[in-house]
Amino acid sequence: MGRRVTIDPITRLEGHGKIEIFLDNKGNVENAYFQVPEMRGFEKFSEGRMVEEMPRITPKICGVCPTAHHMAAAKALDDLYKVEVPRTGRLIRELIYNAFTFEDHAIHFYFLGGPDFVVGPDAPKAERNILGVIGKVGLEIGGQVIDIRHRVRDIITTLGGRVIHPVSCLPGGVSRGLTEENREEFTKTAKDAVEFAKFSLKLFEDVVLGNKTYVDLIVGDVYQHQTYYMGLVTDDNEVDFYDGWIRVVTPDGKEFAKFKVQDWLKHISEHTEPWSYVKFPFLKKVGWKGFVDGPDSGVYRVAPLARLNASEKMRTPNSQAAREQLFETLGFPSHHTLGYHWARLVEIMQAAERMVEIMEDPDIMGDNIRAIPTETPTRGVGVVEAPRGTLIHDYSTDERGVVTQANLLVATVANAAPICMSVERAARGLIKGGKVDDGLLNMVEMAFRAYDPCFGCATHSLPGQMPLEVVVRDADGDVVKRMSQFIKD
Amino acid sequence: MKTLFLGLGSSVLTDDTIGLFVVRRVAELVKDVDDVYTMENEEGGFSLLDESLGYDRMVVIDSIILGNEPGTVTKFGLKELERSIHSCTPHGANLATVLELGRVQGMAVPDEVIIYAIDVVDVLSFGEEPTPVLMEKVDGIAERIVREVLGDAVRGDKAAEGK
Fold first, then answer.
1. Can you name the CATH fold of A84-218+358-372?
2. pLDDT per residue as tens digits for the range A432-478
3. Which residues lie across from B119 on neighbouring strands?
4. Do B8 and A460 touch (CB under 8 A)?
5. B107 interaction partners in chain A (CB closer than 8 Å)
6. In this complex, do A460 and B93 lie within 8 Å of one another by their Cβ atoms?
7. How far is CA A315 from CA A71, A204, A229, in A?
8. Whole-number Å distance between alpha carbons of A231 and A321
9. Which domains are assigned to chain B?
10. Can you tell me the ipTM of this complex?
11. Which of the listed residues A3, A54, A421, B139 has the most CB atoms within 10 Å of its CB?
12. Model-level pTM?
């Protein structure tokens, strides 16, 4: 057995994520750890504020997915004030939210996850990026991605009320409705989004499913974990990004729990490790058994593939057909981590089709967009499915609406334990006899990238992306290989 | 030359607000200068491409952690960020990547990009302004940036007078 290296809490990294891989005397992987930076002081920052500020403040936490926080915060306020959003207001919120899900997922698939498949995991590092994808699919398709993203974002900025962060969701509804001009423009955008989603699924089928090497990668043991899965579902157990019940299924796909969002603390607890600032959520009724999968471990996963597993169907016809194809290939439930990329495209289709459904609903043009709250606030919980998983906002206030407690469970934290496990499994499967090269390390990163984790805090400082470092140490704890995308090696 | 001063950062993450504070001071200094614009951006990734379109020159002001004394300003261009164009990032894309994408796609990205990176310490704690040691350097940093970029258009002494 290699020498065990103790990770002193002081060595926890600030501000960037780190994958640390420890080899034994034979050069095989003994352990792998994934460290996530955690922002500090949110509770204290929130206490004493008027709770109506939360939909404005919480989007600023993340420079990548502010709309998810805005929506979860608005819903928490609905619950806090016990106010029901009128149908038109709800449709507008759903339109904003499906638009956001569409464009966020699209960008991830084409420009972030895409390099793993479209360009290929063995391609040189310099090509495994957005520009490599453009090189493969062509400028025209690249232009289409940018164009559809721009037009879908116009829906968000028009209805959201502000260019950078949406501000229009209020307790009880929204602050503005649609004009006839909006209706015409947005209907066309939504229909084009459906066509784009169809194209994207076809591209995946041709480029990925048509390539045996990629399929073997997806279904292979290296990228699999048999965990529980969580997601929001409608009364009929359909995937929903905006609202519903929280449903959890076992590794066999059977319903384990289905509960109201207000009861989340009865079902989810958190585990701490000395080497990580982030706490690791797990299912209370199963218990924490370590970074392991299986029915006896309380580790669960969230985000696209987890949502498909945690539900029984999609809400729209083309996405349902795409879902069926996915499960015919991967089996139900699918434990294939790289299947997240495929599930993301199934969700793009639902998001696009829901936009069309909403635009064709006559109530979208209604005048009743908000119900004014009248109840005295106490506690409110708002949950949405962010693109990268279940996002929970939980606020308590005094009778004036001043925050006394604020708690967030962000999706990437919910996936933190599975990400650790995926990184370790990939590292064990791929690094043997001390042989570590860039290609192998990229395949470890693929395990991590499939989850589309979001470290919003670190995307603000230059170089403007989440700095990720992968460090491999030998049995004596000395660095064998260090890889990062920093300017400085 | 149509110029954009773009301040980047989060308005709730303490030292990461520095780019926003500096660009607000820049906005005061350049308010009477033709063809010069300022903007604050709290997003990252592809929104940087959106904001950059239509300008001849873009000056980016943002925080960085290089380990220098807080408030140290490092000036560089996109060339220094070339090696950071890599999909290792788990989410989003950085400035260099999105601008290169825009260029490849034939979009109206700036011909010239200047980056002013201000060394900071704390970007993980919640707070609505930089720590005091940085806060007291905001005016000086803004004046330097305006002086270096706009030169004759706004002389340093006039910039210091807020004219």
1. Cytochrome-c3 Hydrogenase; chain B (1.10.645)
2. 888 877 667 777 778 877 887 775 544 445 555 545 677 788 888 88
3. B64
4. yes
5. 146
6. no
7. 20, 21, 19
8. 20
9. 3-161 (3.40.50.1450)
10. 0.81
11. A54
12. 0.89
